[in-house]
């Protein structure tokens, strides 16, 4: 039996899948990861622990496979951004600093003030945040210069794991995009290093290699740790958000994907990068990019209304949705702004003071109205993100817990006004990596062929024209209200900070 292996190395969980070239998941293994927070707002992981857990996860996967299984290839997708440094011997020079770390916030503020940030973003096509590699390198240079004296290569998480499997030091366009690439040329930019005063560290950049190409093969030491045979090809993967798009079936311009959980990641594929983008733009390979926006407006609102408003969580989600369906679109004038996260919102606008509201409450409104408004608020927030990505959305793939609900999927179709496709892939990021393993080992000519072989036909939901017209009107109101709330949120935050504990 021939199998392809894909790994999804996330921040808290590592997942590995094995699939046959003509079907989806054959086996799945998982291992957990912890994140260290030695200081407030810091987020680090021991690089060797990340490797050890990944190797153990692969070993667990192989134990589930039949004895006659042949692994054709392996590919890694992983958390992006952060700072993963190794020395000339291939050993970490410090713990990895993660994408969620905020220690370099002052560099972002300084670069915004002096114009450096604008210049970098003009080149790389994306907005920087503290957890991207250049501000983190600036912090290491100032606070731990001895680390950089011994550093030989700058990697990202998937590249560190690929190095441990093969001994090769490489990265791909997707991880390098933010902010090391000239996004329009798809090549390294010297200017971003010179502009930030970090030019002396340009030698740390690894070789760029296309996703879906063979990086190397499993070494003897990696074989001993994972159980994967020596010589098995290892194929260049993508950072996790991009790999998830492939694993859902989104491989062409106009395809869009929303991964919906506690937080939401929305992305849309395009053939060219956009000038003056206020989002994150990532090159996947030649002539294909993804533009992404993360949002905090996720499923916490549904959990909140079920646990705190309805009946302390005793009602099933199915009954919750039945209640919502008893109320017409628009919830009889009740509008919910779904900014329930204590850290505010991060997309399509950034405001740490943003908070949730129910607007328009009247005595006639019932619990069912509140439930309906909460679901609609989440769908409107989803649309808000895609309105900030002016690519034409031809079809929207959705994945995550809520997509098991026909009510939710139809609501999103009606609110967005586009066809919704629900992928059958339970682990889209790992499956996307496995598809790339198949491309690199000539099982597929390209990812489009791979997804057509691996994924079943998705469930489809068509928008209802009359209902979409209602949501068009509600969306205009939604944007105007949340825009006008900025000053009120700031006032509320200032007042709240003065209240006694």
UniProtKB/TrEMBL annotation:
| Annotated ranges, domain Carbohydrate kinase FGGY C-terminal | 259-439
Keywords, A to Z, come to: Kinase, Plasmid, Transferase
Database matches in Gene3D superfamilies:
3.30.420.40
Provide one Gene Ontology biological process annotation.
carbohydrate metabolic process
Extract the Pfam families matched here.
Answer: FGGY_C, FGGY_N
Q: Which domain of life is it from?
A: Archaea
Question: What SUPFAM superfamilies does this protein map onto?
Answer: Actin-like ATPase domain (SSF53067)
InterPro entries linked to this entry: ATPase_NBD, Carb_kinase_FGGY, Carb_kinase_FGGY_CS, FGGY_C, FGGY_Carb_Kinase, FGGY_N
Residues forming the Carbohydrate kinase FGGY N-terminal domain are 4-247
The terms under GO molecular function for this entry are: kinase activity; phosphotransferase activity, alcohol group as acceptor
Q: Does the keyword Disulfide bond apply?
A: no
Q: Does the keyword Transferase apply?
A: yes
Record's family?
Answer: Belongs to the FGGY kinase family.
The molecule here is called Sugar kinase
Specify the species.
Answer: Halalkalicoccus jeotgali (strain DSM 18796 / CECT 7217 / JCM 14584 / KCTC 4019 / B3)
């Amino acid at each position: 039996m021939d199998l392809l292996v894909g790994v999804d190395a996330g921040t808290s969980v590592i997942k590995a899948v094995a699939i046959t070239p003509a079907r989806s998941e054959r086996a799945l293994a998982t291992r957990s990861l912890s994140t260290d927070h030695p200081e407030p707002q810091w987020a680090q992981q021991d690089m060797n622990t990340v490797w050890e857990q990944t190797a153990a996860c692969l070993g667990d996967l192989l134990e589930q496979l039949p004895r006659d299984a042949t692994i054709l290839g392996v590919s890694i997708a992983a958390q992006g951004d952060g700072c993963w440094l190794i020395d000339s011997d291939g050993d970490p020079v410090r713990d990895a600093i993660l994408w969620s770390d905020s220690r370099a916030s002052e560099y972002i503020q300084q670069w915004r003030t002096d114009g450096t940030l604008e210049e970098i973003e003009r080149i790389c096509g994306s907005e920087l945040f503290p957890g991207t590699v250049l501000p983190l390198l600036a912090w290491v240079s100032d606070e731990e210069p001895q680390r950089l004296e011994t550093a030989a290569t700058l990697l990202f998480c998937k590249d560190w794991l690929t190095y441990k499997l093969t001994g090769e030091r490489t990265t791909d366009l997707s991880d390098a995009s933010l902010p090391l690439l000239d996004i329009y040329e798809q090549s390294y930019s010297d200017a971003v290093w010179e502009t930030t005063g970090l030019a002396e560290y340009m030698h740390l950049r690894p070789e760029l290699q296309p996703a879906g190409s063979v990086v190397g093969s499993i070494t003897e030491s990696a074989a001993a740790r994972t159980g994967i045979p020596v010589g098995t090809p290892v194929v260049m993967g993508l950072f996790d958000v991009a790999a998830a798009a492939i694993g859902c079936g989104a491989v062409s311009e106009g395809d869009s994907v929303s991964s919906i959980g506690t937080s939401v990641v929305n992305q849309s594929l395009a053939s060219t990068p956009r000038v003056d983008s206020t989002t994150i733009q990532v090159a996947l390979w030649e002539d294909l990019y993804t533009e992404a926006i993360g949002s905090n407006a996720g499923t916490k609102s549904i959990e909140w209304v079920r646990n705190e408003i309805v009946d302390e969580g005793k009602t099933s989600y199915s009954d919750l949705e039945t209640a919502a369906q008893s109320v017409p679109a628009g919830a009889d004038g009740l509008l919910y702004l779904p900014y329930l996260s204590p850290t505010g919102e991060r997309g399509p606008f950034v405001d740490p003071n943003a908070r949730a509201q129910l607007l328009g409450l009247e005595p006639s409104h019932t619990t069912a109205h509140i439930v309906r408004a909460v679901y609609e608020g989440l769908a409107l927030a989803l649309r808000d993100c895609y309105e900030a990505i002016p690519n034409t959305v031809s079809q929207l793939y959705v994945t995550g817990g809520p997509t098991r609900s026909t009510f939710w999927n139809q609501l999103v179709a009606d609110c967005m006004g586009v066809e919704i496709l629900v992928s059958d892939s339970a682990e889209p990021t790992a499956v996307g990596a496995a598809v790339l393993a198949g491309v690199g080992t000539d099982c597929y000519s390209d990812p489009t062929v791979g997804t057509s072989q691996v994924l079943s036909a998705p469930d489809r939901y068509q928008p209802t024209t009359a209902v979409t017209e209602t949501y068009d009107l509600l969306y205009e109101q939604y944007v105007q209200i949340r825009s006008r709330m900025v000053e009120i949120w700031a006032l509320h935050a200032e007042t709240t900070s003065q209240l006694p504990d």
